[in-house]
């Protein structure tokens, strides 16, 4: 059996899990339009240069910069208009721009050979069909994008593990990759435990409550790019829990159990996890509030979490320990995990040696972002709904005072 009842910091819990998780995800090739939010399975490099030719970034005239030196409004540089660039057309065939010449060019047009800059149309005056006066000089390279300036052939463009964003799809389209190798989404099995739980459609009797966690955790898993699946409610009993866990572990890459982590069937859950495979339970308890009675296990290389039953606690622990695994397959150091700095509206106590996570509602007043704690016990799901994010009070602090800044991650 693993290291039971030893309370861990979040960092240690992550380290232990990282050390024991060995299961890998299959790779699939998906069309570019289905790749948003997916994780790249290998490094990608560009075959083509983007753009493939020098192009103008303005409507105007392609010129040799040196022909415009010294030009002013009162003494323009006069150039002969000897050509016109058409969009999408190869200018090489149309010849070369020579000294004293200018070619009309649209934004994005291919620079003719011989030209090294573009004069914006605003800084020209048309004297007749064939002559312009340039009223402002340009330097070589002005208003043009060079071939390969965006992406050079052979450039590594995106790395394995990267979660694809809209701009990444644009870049992959630019280099002509219409399909991408991505990891299959993590299949997440969700099991709720408790004799008091009933399905959403049921009317709870006295002493009963509807199952909240299956839905909230399903939402969190889906939001993190995983493929969640609900295994329903299991009664507090070893045999049925073992059965359900066994099934979920065969069909999923990661399994979540909620409830029964503290007293109740705690030992049952831990015993079940140790029965199912090695190394079993890695830790029982993390030094955070809410979320202390969390069980972390690895069974045959796959992570299994016993999340606390209180819905807020389950969601907070999911956010800290499960989301990074689903998103990145790991616990990367993320300096932007809590990206917002906000000013506390009131004092909040916490115990040293324990990280506290506060539900906060953010608002802005006179240019300052304030964090207003949403108070309420961790059994109250409505507190999560009223909050816009989670603020962290680090373990070394004994609280935060009104006016002090804290770090917040947004939901
Ligand atoms: N004597 C102690 N009691 C408790 C302790 C403790 O240290 N000593 N820890 C408290 C803390 S903190 C938490 S968090 C909870 C953890 O409870 P469990 O993980 O053992 O879960 P349960 O006892 O089954 O449930 C707790 C609470 O949550 C409700 N619950 C559970 N599952 C769901 C669900 N799917 N949907 C909605 N609500 C759910 C359950 O009905 C209980 O009210 O223990 C404290 N107690
Ligand atoms: O962990 Mo309990 O989660 O403090 O409510």
TrEMBL record:
Q: Which SMART domains match?
A: MoCF_biosynth (SM00852)
Q: Which GO terms describe its molecular function?
A: metal ion binding; molybdopterin molybdotransferase activity
Q: What class of enzyme is it?
A: transferase
An example of a Gene Ontology cellular component annotation for this protein is: cytosol
What Pfam families does the record tag this protein with?
A: MoCF_biosynth (PF00994), MoeA_C (PF03454), MoeA_N (PF03453)
Quote the pathway field.
Cofactor biosynthesis; molybdopterin biosynthesis
MoaB/Mog domain residues are: 189-328
Output the GO biological process annotations, alphabetical, semicolon-separated: Mo-molybdopterin cofactor biosynthetic process
**EC id:** 2.10.1.1
Report the catalytic activity: adenylyl-molybdopterin + molybdate = Mo-molybdopterin + AMP + H(+)
The Swiss-Prot or TrEMBL record lists the needed cofactor(s) as: Mg(2+)
Database matches in SUPFAM superfamilies: MoeA C-terminal domain-like, MoeA N-terminal region -like, Molybdenum cofactor biosynthesis proteins
Q: Does the keyword Hydrolase apply?
A: no
Keywords from UniProt, A to Z, are: Magnesium, Metal-binding, Molybdenum, Molybdenum cofactor biosynthesis, Transferase
Concerning InterPro entries, the annotation shows:
MoaB/Mog-like_dom_sf, MoaB/Mog_dom, MoeA-like, MoeA_C_domain_IV, MoeA_C_domain_IV_sf, MoeA_linker/N, MoeA_linker/N_sf
* NCBIfam families, per the entry: Glp_gephyrin (NF045515), molyb_syn (TIGR00177)
Explain the purpose of this protein.
Catalyzes the insertion of molybdate into adenylated molybdopterin with the concomitant release of AMP.
| Family stated for the protein in its record | Belongs to the MoeA family.
What is the protein's name according to its record?
Molybdopterin molybdenumtransferase
């Amino acid at each position: 059996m693993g290291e039971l009842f030893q309370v861990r910091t979040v960092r240690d819990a992550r380290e232990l899990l990282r050390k024991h998780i060995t299961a890998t995800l299959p790779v699939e090739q998906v069309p570019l339009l289905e790749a948003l939010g997916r994780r790249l399975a290998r490094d990608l490099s560009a075959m083509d240069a983007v753009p493939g030719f020098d192009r103008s970034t303005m409507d105007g005239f392609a010129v040799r910069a040196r022909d415009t030196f010294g030009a002013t409004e009162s003494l323009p540089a006069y150039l002969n208009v000897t050509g016109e660039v058409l969009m999408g057309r190869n200018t090489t065939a149309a010849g070369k721009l020579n000294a004293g010449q200018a070619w009309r060019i649209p934004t994005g047009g291919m620079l003719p050979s011989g030209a090294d800059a573009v004069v914006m149309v605003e800084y020209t005056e048309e004297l007749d069909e064939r002559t312009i006066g340039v009223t402002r000089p340009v330097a070589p390279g002005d208003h043009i994008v060079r071939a390969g300036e965006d992406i050079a052939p052979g450039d590594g463009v995106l790395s394995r593990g990267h979660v694809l964003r809209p701009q990444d799809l644009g870049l992959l389209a630019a280099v002509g990759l219409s399909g991408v190798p991505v990891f299959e989404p993590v299949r997440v099995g969700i099991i709720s435990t408790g004799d008091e739980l009933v399905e959403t459609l049921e009317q709870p009797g006295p002493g009963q409550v509807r199952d909240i966690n299956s839905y909230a955790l399903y939402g969190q898993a889906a939001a993190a790019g995983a493929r969640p699946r609900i295994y329903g409610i299991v009664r507090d009993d070893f045999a049925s829990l073992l059965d359900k866990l066994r099934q979920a572990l065969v069909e999923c890459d990661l399994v979540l159990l909620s409830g029964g982590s503290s007293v109740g069937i705690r030992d049952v859950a831990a015993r079940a996890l140790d029965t199912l495979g090695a190394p079993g339970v890695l830790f029982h308890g993390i030094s955070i509030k809410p979320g202390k009675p969390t069980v972390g296990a690895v069974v045959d290389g796959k992570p299994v979490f016993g999340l606390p039953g209180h819905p807020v606690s389950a969601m907070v622990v999911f956010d800290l320990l499960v989301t990074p695994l689903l998103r990145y397959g790991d616990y990367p150091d993320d300096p932007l995990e809590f990206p917002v700095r906000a000013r506390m509206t009131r004092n909040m106590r916490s115990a040293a040696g324990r990280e506290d996570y506060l539900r906060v509602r953010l608002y802005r007043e006179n240019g300052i972002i304030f964090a207003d704690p949403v108070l309420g016990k961790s059994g109250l799901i409505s507190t999560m709904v009223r909050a816009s994010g989670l603020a962290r009070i680090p373990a070394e602090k004994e609280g935060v005072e009104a006016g002090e800044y804290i770090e917040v991650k947004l939901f």
